[in-house]
Amino acid sequence: MDGERLTLGKVLSAVGLVIIMLWTIFPLYWVFNMSIQTPIDVISYPPKFVFDPTLENYSVVLLGKSWLGKYETVQTDFPRYFLNSLIVCSGAVILSMLVGVPAAYSLARYNFRGKENFAFTLLSFRFAPGLIVIIPLFVIFRRIGFYGTYYGMIFAYQLLTLPFSVWLMRGFFEDIPPELEYAARIDGYSWWGVFRKIDLPLIAPGIAATGILSFIFAWNEFLFGYILSSDATRPVTPSLMGFISYEQVLWGQMAAAAIITLLPSVILAIFIQRYLVRGLTFGAVKG
Amino acid sequence: MVNVELKNVVKKYGDLIAINNLSFKVNSGELMVLLGPPGAGKSSTLKTVAGVEEVTSGEILIDNELVNNFDPADRDVAMAFETYALYPHLSVFENIAFPLRAPKRSRLFSEEAVKEKVLEVARFLEIDMLLERKPKELSGGQRQRVALGRCLIRDPKVFLLDEPIAHLDAKLRYRLRQELKKWQQRKGVTTLYTTTDYLEAFSVADRIVILNKGTLQQVGSWEEIYNHPANTFVGMIVSDPPMNYFDGKLVMDGGKMLMRAKGISFYLPSLTEEKARQMNISEVVLGIFPSKILMSRDENFMPGSGTIVDGVAKFTELRGSRKIVFVQTPQDLSFTIQLPAEAKVQIGEKVRCFFGEDEVQIFDKQSKINLFWV
Amino acid sequence: MSVESRSRQSFWSKNIAWLLFMPAFILTAGILIPFGYSVVMSFTDFNLTAGTSNFIGFGNYIKLAKDPEFWNALKVTILFTIGAVAIEVGAGFASAYLLNLGMRGQKIWRTLFLLPVMLPPAVAAIMWKLMMAPIQGVFNYLLQSVGLPGSQWLGGSSSALFSVILIDAYVFMPFAGMIFLAGVQNLPKEPYEAAAVDGVSSWFTFRRLTIPLLKPVILIVLLFRIMDCLKQFDIIYAATKGGPASATMTISVQAYYHSFRWTNMGYAFAHLVILWAIVYALSYFLVGQWRKAVSEVHGY
Predict the structure, then answer these.
(1) I need a surface site. Which of A17, B225, B366, C223 has the fewest CB within 10 A?
(2) Which residue among B210, B237, B264 closes a domain?
(3) Is B342 a residue whose pLDDT tops 70?
(4) Section A16-21 average pLDDT
């Protein structure tokens, strides 16, 4: 009797797991499926699970300047958008790391007036509606000529990545007992020597994870890029909005563009899986 | 040769006073033990001497030089942390070698010399077979020895050892405390050493500083402290079981001063009497170490001139080679006695206790200070 | 030691904390400028095309209180949040349970489970939009092939809100799941062993031990998901642009239209200030609860 119940429980658990995995994987599978179908296959009904795969959609998206649809042609420059994303996201991440590492160290190691208030304010921006910052930035940037420039975009994107980086790296620094630094100071190393020989090696994985997560956040960001970029500087994620609508049935290309856009985030995320829980909760849950 | 001196050192963490106006001097080549319960300010004292924590006020002198504003790296001290503070990303070998690789020393030691020195220290600490391991692969006792090794590999002006053998197993602890003492004497390095264990303190120390709540209680050699504990706190901490205390009253009896407690009375030694008169006190606390009380089951026991107290053995406790007896008298006086383990005592048995009056410490009840030191 | 070098050292040691912190402070303080700008402009009739702005006091807020579209947007925002958070927490908990049973291939399942969390939400919305197409979409095909009626999904005024909730749940359910999983894995072993020795039922253990111990983690999930849902823009805008007929018009999307379609900036800012106030008050409350829960569980 007990054995049977156990088996039933096991079966139910397995079924549950299958459902969860289908829920997670099926959309990715299906969109990938669409991305390797010909324009005829992709709009056929019933949808095709078996077909002759083609890479045409990818070559059109990546190489072609125009998408040749049935009724319309859409001008895109996907490699350009990709490059824009790379410039803006890397710029924001590098800036965040350069000023974020010292700031995180300072928050973790020193006590100064208003420290906790300031740290919490940093965090609270995570919860502010994005538009309340972006719309004024749009107005201000247009006035001072920052609109549509890489500088302006990098400044805007670091507003997302810097507070996150500081908050997360502070936690990594706090994981290093201050006594290690004391010991190294006594062992004859200067402040900089201690930072280089002790802190840096110990925090390197944390810095890498923080940088990669920041990059993913910036890459995934839609609103900042959508509002603050010009055609020439548009990042890839907001660019997808430019050619999606039901009237243009360029499903294959759209699917291919979606896959190309999400690929960097997904690949990077797998590398830092260990730090995901900690990163996504701003260090509140140490996974 | 190097001496270390603290002058009116105060260290506060916010409102918490960790070190309260501490002054003492460690002579050249001396091993000074800081003894006190956890939270007494021992570690804080070492950290301020090392310079990893700034003093709130006061002066620290090493080699007669004011070092308050010296960087820890420039004070030329070596410290073993109670929490080990091992570098987790480095092997045991590299941990121990780390001080020798500091920029200002790296030119003095070839790779060969580093290897040789690490091996010497590692053999001494019996960790030479662990050199390739990372700290997380070591037991607590092994980690502590690595921390000690990182300290001993240097020839600094001052060693600062913060409970350096507290986490070792008993056998190694006994051996190492003697070896450490020998090592320190051979190198002649002035040393500050903290512990909570009075036996360890007595066994390694040249002199001892007793601390409580950041405040200095007494400085002195083993004999000075044991023969005349400065106050009731010291009496408590340098003996286990702690010193026995009884409340007493001083009364004049025919021109001499009589000390009276429950069922005990004797005339004060003349020196003590003089002090009591000067201070004009009548309320006192008597203190006597459990080891200074003799006991017999013989009703006529009288080993010499002293005070006899009759009581009943309430219970006994065996502690290694010692037996502790708890005695209560009909006058409701209770105290502990330390005897050899072989001593035969039945619970409930009548016993006769004896102590010499010169073994009794007399403290002012209000200030808890030993009249001897007034 | 000379007086000069002494003073130099104390200047450095006294100010090092601020010197290290300053650059980040300046860059992040930059956020206060646009933020303050929004708050100030919400008291004006700022029109970007005309380039005029006049102070009109609480005019925008009074208008807001009388605007049925705003009340609709508030309703949609709250329904969206409740629906999405309920699914994410419920399914997340179930997933954490299933992924912690030690089934074969658990490591791979866990990795695959996490994938959606890293998708750009706007891209995920586009993916789902492709699948939810009423005529040629795969969802309706699958439903019909098992004999169920298809749905208008994002195109239907009654199904659109549920559809965007599903998309949000797709992206963020793994977020809840993986945090619960981390919480479950960090549970101390001893209380459970003690409970087993005491012969307590597993339901009782779950209710009296697991739930209280997981309270900080549950609150973190609620904090992040409620805040994100209240201000969700990417998914809704990419999937429906607020339509059809305002069925998915949340405060964020509404404010976006007010600012960029109708150039009524002041009114748009009033929307956003209200939304921010709601989010801030709620997050303040939830952070407080979380800190309390953490101190109860960990005793500090």
Answers:
(1) B366
(2) B237
(3) yes
(4) 92
Instruction: Give A-chain residues touching B77 at CB under 8 angstroms.
Output: 186
Closest-CA distance of chain B to residue A183, Å: 7
B255 three-state secondary structure: coil
C-chain CB neighbours of A137 within 8 Å are 34
Would the CB atoms of A182 and B72 count as touching at under 8 Å? yes
Residues 6+ positions from C181 with CB-CB distance below 8 Å: A277, C95, C96, C99, C100, C110
Looking up residue B324, the CATH number of its domain turns out to be 2.40.50.140
**Residues with Cβ within 8 Å of residue A14, at least 6 apart in sequence:** C103
- The pLDDT-based confidence of A127 (bands split at 50, 70, 90) is confident
On whether both B42 and B143 belong to a single domain, the answer is: yes
- Cβ contact (<8 Å) for C9 and B66? no
- What is the rounded distance in angstroms from the CA atom of residue C95 to the CA atom of residue C118? 17
C224, C273 contact by CB (below 8 A): no
- C22: nearest CA in chain A? A103
Residues B207 and B301 in one domain: no
Q: What is the mean pLDDT of residues B81-96?
A: 93
Residue B96 lies in domain: 4-237
Can you give the CATH number for the domain in which B150 is found? 3.40.50.300
pLDDT of A249 reads 60
Domain residue spans of chain C: 56-298
Q: What is the mean pLDDT of chain A?
A: 84
Across A29-35, average pLDDT: 90
Nearest Cα residue to A247 out of A77, A36, A70: A70
Distance (Å) from the alpha carbon of C100 to chain B's nearest alpha carbon: 27
Residues B77 and B205 in one domain: yes
Contacts of B71 in chain C (CB under 8 A): 9
Q: What is the tally of structural domains in chain B?
A: 2
Report the gap between the CA of B290 and the closest CA in chain C (Å): 40
The stretch C12-23 carries a mean pLDDT of: 79
Give the closest residue to B96 by CA, choosing from A187, A189, A186, A193: A187
| Class of the CATH domain delimited by C56-298 | mainly alpha
Q: Distance between alpha carbon C123 and the CA centroid of its chain, in Å?
A: 17
Q: Each residue of C194-214: pLDDT tens digit?
A: 888 887 878 888 888 888 888
C contacts of A130 (beta carbons < 8 Å): 231, 233
- Put simply, the answer to whether A187 touches B51 (Cβ < 8 Å) is no
- What is the end-to-end Cα distance of chain B in Å, rounded? 34
Cβ–Cβ < 8 Å for B61, B5: yes
Whether the Cβ atoms of residue B203 and residue B180 lie closer than 8 Å to each other: no
Asked if B279 and B310 sit in the same domain, the reply is yes
Collect all residues with Cβ–Cβ distance below 8 Å to C249 and sequence separation of at least 6: C69, C72, C73, C76, C242, C243
Closest chain C C-alpha to A13 CA, distance in angstroms: 6
* Shared-domain flag, residues B16 and B145: yes
- Identify the closest residue of chain C to B69 by CA–CA distance: C6
Q: Tell me if B297 sits within 8 A of B351, measured CB to CB.
A: yes
Asked if the model's pLDDT at residue A176 lies above 50, the reply is yes
Q: How far apart are CA B199 and CA B151, in angstroms?
A: 23
Residue ending a domain, among B176, B204, B237, is: B237
For A215, nearest residue in chain C (alpha carbons): C118
Does the pTM of the predicted model rise above 0.90? no
From chain C, the residues in CB contact with A219 under 8 A are 120
My answer on whether B136 and B179 are in the same domain is yes
Chain B residues 51-70 with CB within 8 Å of chain A = 51-52
* Token code pair at residue C86: 């309920």
Phi first, then psi: what are they for B266, rounded to 5°? -155, 160
**What number is the ipTM of this complex?**
0.86
**Contacts of B among chains (3+ CB pairs under 8 A):** A, C
pLDDT computed for residue C295 by the predictor: 83
